[in-house]
Amino acid sequence: MQTFDPSILLDRVREIVNTDIGPRASVLDERYEWPEHNLRALQAAGLGGLVVPQELGGLGHGMFMLARTCELIGTSCASTALCFGMHCVATAVIAAKATPRQADELLAPICAGKHITTLALSEPGTGAHFYFPRVSITPQEGGYRINGTKSFVTNGSHADSYVVSTAPSDPDAPPDQFSCVVVPASAEGLEWGPEWRGLGMRGNSSRTAKLQDVSIPSHCLLGEEGDQIWYVFRVVGPYFLIAMAGTYLGIAVAALQEAVGHMQARQYAHSGTGLADIPVLQHRLGCMWAVVERTRRLIYHAASEADEGGETALLALASAKAEVADCAVSVVNEAMTLCGGVSYRAGGLLERLMRDARAAHVMSPTTDILRTWVGRGLLGQPLLGD
Ligand SMILES: Cc1cc2nc3c(=O)[nH]c(=O)nc-3n(C[C@H](O)[C@H](O)[C@H](O)COP(=O)(O)OP(=O)(O)OC[C@H]3O[C@@H](n4cnc5c(N)ncnc54)[C@H](O)[C@@H]3O)c2cc1C
Pick from 97, 366, 62: which is nearest to 226 by CA? Predict the structure, then answer.
């Protein structure tokens, strides 16, 4: 049943987090399992089309709600939040300039909870510089032929379609004039590398895709040939930054909750007092809360500003993802100190959070690259100057 009301939607997400996502989080992590059940539950609750405009059949929400949703899911299972977030980012890319045919064939099933899509931008050769793709696109009768390799494709081998970036088809065009196409999962010539075995984010199925003479019809091109730098700054970047900011904020929130719960419960046999009575630990907890809260406020503010089309939104979004990476890693680390040796045991919640949090710095745009973009923006220089 479709609802557009933000508070009803967030209540639905909370319910799914409690009944479906939370109970499965540690098993998914242990088994490196793609969170199929969780994603189906989110789709069944109508969230597949969260960021698809209402006139195209979706819920019509923007970055603020994407941040809130990913945060709630990420508090319970960061892998599920990452998979759901990537689906939403790819959905926003498809919706940005969708043709009527793309709306019918892709967005309608996405909104009906019957289609998962995802982003395949990164490549082994260009790494963190995902905006310079080398995968080739060659025009042919009725469409295009695609060749090359994509790396770290979240939802890889499980999604129904892949938003794939390609180099410009004209070899003389500037490298940032690249294109994006939608490749259906069933495309002949699309092959998957080994199963994902990450330090953390173990459920996200971040696999390598080989595209060998993959033929796609011309209606699979998104927007115009060569206008993808527009997408990077208008859609891919903003939606991706905010989905990831929400996800990693969720990790920090979970670590803070764990620290509070542990400090309240831990009592000493020799004194009858507990961790909650020790001033230096109270002080450290206060500092952790402030780190989480200032990051949350930056993320929410950046997302709202971006939804309103604010001038400085991009710098705020870039800083939000950079800040949340520092926040998640440091708050989980601090929580482990407060919770002591018990939390250092293998298989505990904080161990999983620490492994998951560590992905934040290395996921493109990486923390260093984001900080550089912000600096360049402040200096009046083009962001992609390297
Ligand atoms: C869990 C996970 C999920 C992912 N999911 C997806 C996905 O769904 N879709 C997708 O397309 N990609 C995805 N990625 C890929 C990711 O976004 C990066 O592209 C990838 O991690 C880059 O790795 P690399 O080793 O090639 O980095 P490299 O490019 O080799 O970079 C190594 C380090 O050098 C730094 N560096 C490089 N250039 C600069 C510079 N100019 N200034 C400052 N520092 C610099 C980087 O910040 C980084 O810290 C995922 C990655 C992970 C870990």
Answer: 97
